[in-house]
Amino acid sequence: MGFSLTGTRVLYFIATVVIAGMVSGLIYSVASDTSDSLCKREERVQNQLDLDFIIINDPFHIPLSGDGNHRLFYLKNIGEKKFIITNETFQLFINGDLISTSNYNFSVSCLESGKLATIYIDTSEISYGDHVLRIIGPQALYDEFVFTI
Length: 149
Hints:
Elements: H1 5-50, E1 53-55, E2 70-77, E3 83-84, E4 91-94, E5 97-98, E6 104-106, E7 110-111, E8 116-122, E9 130-136, E10 142-148
Antiparallel strand pairs: 1-2, 2-8, 3-7, 4-5, 4-9, 6-8, 9-10
């Protein structure tokens, strides 16, 4: 005695339901992972948009500090969030050369949105002529400023 036609159809139906369940589980897993990745990327992009800064000096007149030992550059927070500014969170380059952290400092340690900070760069780092100052901050944000001394 073998299976009847009805028994065979029931087995095919059960196999089809099991396969459909496995496929739908796989599709759900892939869609969930993709959604999570997009949410994380959105958060990173939003953080980059919330943190932004710009150098706002006159490129043909870079002032000296009162003691004459430092050139003054002005950094403005144009983002939505405040951020910490220290020699560890910001790196400065003049004409592509990294400035030693001992040769620059900031007037404040926390910069609110819309506020200015002064960057004091040792005059030994900047000779007369044309230069490019590049400031790299949190999350690899940067600004370049071309100036003449």
